[in-house]
Specification:
Pfam families: BtrH_N, DUF4872. This protein has 334 residues and is α+β, with helices and mostly antiparallel strands. It has helices spanning 14-25, 32-38, 66-75, 87-98, 154-161, 186-201, 209-244, 250-268, 271-300, 305-330; strands at residues 42-52, 55-61, 78-82, 104-108, 127-135, 138-142, 150-152, 173-178. A 6-stranded antiparallel β-sheet has the order 3-8-4-5-6-7, sandwiched between helices. A two-stranded antiparallel ribbon has the order 1-2.
Length: 334
């Protein structure tokens, strides 16, 4: 494969950032927004029956691994992927591959990565990073959300790769075994846009896409009456955490997707995509405003229905904006 030194670029989100850095290492230049868009990464779901650290799960992006799988499929990249039954097997396999000079993508838990500040280390098991070598017993790490490369000791890396909980990473590692010298982005961009519109507008279940934002809005309004003051703050706090701290955050994903549409507008010579990109950044601002107001409610432990009702209305505003945006995007003729 390629034995050039690994080039680290800081990105907004771990999965699309690893795609950009890994494929770039093999000469296939793809920006983080382009990877996110081709992989149809923008999404929304609220899953009260899927508990994350004991509270209902909310996601502002497609499930972990989907962006990677879609980008590789659409660009003709072949990946070797493996999971392991024990840390010993997983670490031995990693050592074997990096000894050949091949950078390896890993799934990990943020909690066990010592180079993160303590306030950012919590139990989130779907963080992607790249290990590109080993020196003096330390693994050399390119974590796309960090501004520079770093190192990690074997014990911490093994803990991060084999953390318990949902979803269990099981030592997952992946690396390219075939990267095309050139790839046309036009068709993958169109397919990514069409898939994102479908997932945001057409899934028939109420927890997903634009329907999912409205579903969350209705639940938030009733939190104080249904789960009490303490749980209301915990539930709302997790919605904010998933929006503003996990990877890029809900608003951040909207800004990344807007950047993708700007690139796509140039690539496909479609000015209307550029206009839609500007519109989506305004939706990102709506999400940021919601997070700010929700944070204030959490900190004050205010359990009066007025505050939660206002938050519910802000979410309904986000839903209306996203529905209008994706309907217009779905109508773009390619």
């Amino acid at each position: 494969m390629n034995n050039h030194p690994f080039h680290h670029t800081q990105t907004a989100h771990c999965e699309s950032g690893v795609i950009s850095n890994l494929l770039g290492h093999y000469g296939l230049r793809i920006s983080e927004p382009m990877a996110f868009g081709i992989g149809a990464g923008i999404f929304f779901a609220h899953l009260p029956f899927v508990k994350v650290n004991g509270v209902p799960g909310t996601t502002y992006r497609i499930w972990p691994g989907a962006i990677f799988q879609r980008v590789c499929s659409r660009l003709g990249v072949k990946m070797e992927t493996a999971k392991f039954s024990s840390p010993e097997k997983g670490m031995a396999a990693l050592d074997t591959v990096i000894a050949t000079g091949t950078p390896v993508g890993l799934l990990s838990s943020v909690y066990y990565l010592p180079y993160f500040p303590p306030s950012y280390r919590f139990h989130f098991n779907a963080h992607n990073l790249v290990v590109y070598g080993k020196q003096n017993g330390q693994y050399l790490v390119s974590d796309p959300v960090m501004d520079t490369v770093t190192e990690i000791d074997p014990e911490s890396l093994a803990q991060a790769r084999f953390a318990k909980g949902f979803p269990a990473p099981k030592g997952k590692m992946y690396y390219p075994v075939h990267v095309p010298d050139v790839a046309s982005f036009e068709k993958p961009v169109k397919e990514g846009i069409q898939q994102a519109c479908h997932y945001m507008l057409k899934i028939p279940f109420p927890m997903f896409g634009v329907k999912g934002i409205r579903y969350l809005a209705n639940r938030v309004k009733d939190y104080p009456a249904k789960v009490g003051e303490r749980k209301s703050a915990l539930y709302l706090g997790n919605v904010i955490r998933m929006q503003e701290e996990i990877g890029t955050g809900g608003a951040g994903f909207r800004f990344v997707y807007a950047a993708f549409l700007q690139e796509a507008a140039t690539l496909l010579k479609k000015d209307e995509l550029s206009k839609l990109a500007a519109e989506l950044t305004q939706t990102g601002d709506l999400w940021r405003n919601f997070a700010f107001s929700a944070g204030r409610v959490c900190k004050s432990r205010a359990a009066d229905n007025v505050s939660y009702k206002e938050l519910s209305e802000m979410l309904l505003q986000c839903a209306a904006a996203e529905e209008a945006f994706f309907r217009r995007l779905a109508q773009v003729k390619f």
